[in-house]
Amino acid sequence: MYESSMKWKHGHTWYRVLGDLHNGRTPVILLHGGPGVGHNYLEAAADLILQSGRACVLYDQLGCGNSTLIPDAPKEFWTPELFMEELDLLTKELGVEKDYAILGQSWGGMLGMQYAIGRPAGLAAMVVADSPSSMEVWVSEANKLRAQLPPENQAILLKHETEGTTDDPAYEQAMELFYSRHVCRVPMPPSVLASFALLKIDPTVYYTMNGPSEFHTIGSLRTWDITDRLSNINVPTLLVSGQYDEATPFMVAEIHKRIPGSLWHLFPESSHMPHIEEPALFKRIVCDFLDSVTA
Hints:
Elements: E1 2-8, E2 11-18, E3 28-31, H1 43-50, E4 56-59, H2 80-94, E5 100-105, H3 107-117, E6 123-129, H4 135-146, H5 151-163, H6 169-182, H7 190-201, H8 204-209, E7 237-242, H9 249-258, E8 263-267, H10 274-277, H11 279-293
Parallel strand pairs: 3-4, 3-5, 5-6, 6-7, 7-8
Antiparallel strand pairs: 1-2, 2-4
């Protein structure tokens, strides 16, 4: 294991390499969610994949964690294209640009799918975990789940969204029930809490691109939609999601229909983090897939 950073025109991107990138087995680059929650909560997924003898790369995308923070950047700076460029440069920095796989979770899966649509030459396989291909569908489905919350929770959420006070502790407390049902159904381990803590250190990327919560998306991604382009993806693709996921079975099924030859595994006891909620099954499904389609 070693840690380093990639210098590029916007600052530096921190990364950690686990295992031997050049041991003959296609390495996996993990793309974290948010945007802006950092690599921490994906450490568990990397550890599971590493047990199969396959190297993994964790990194913090620009604007969060150990990478350069740019709190004063204009809103238009933060785009999927920025993070696609960062990923492309990282594969070259690591010397794996001719053979690598990606595992993207939540926003990371959105980024991964948009990146794969461009058919990068060295991309050998992709795992998309708990991700939408349309933010309008994401918000629609999230609000269906929100409607199942107790009326008092819904009233608090609506009040603070209407008044623009979503940073109020009462709003965050009302959100916790949603998180416990649809984000992580087991006690959150320290690595997950560490990722959420990054949003308090610098919420710039999350608030600019997403908004104050999972279902109040008012940022630049609010109209993001690549659904009609998914048929351009030409690498072996595995979709994973949870039965109780905020990336609902309905939205993942729509992606599954459109990515040619894609596989989909629905984790019966999971919500948004199967790698935390059902780790043994996650390891078997993901590693078996990677072994079947890569070197």
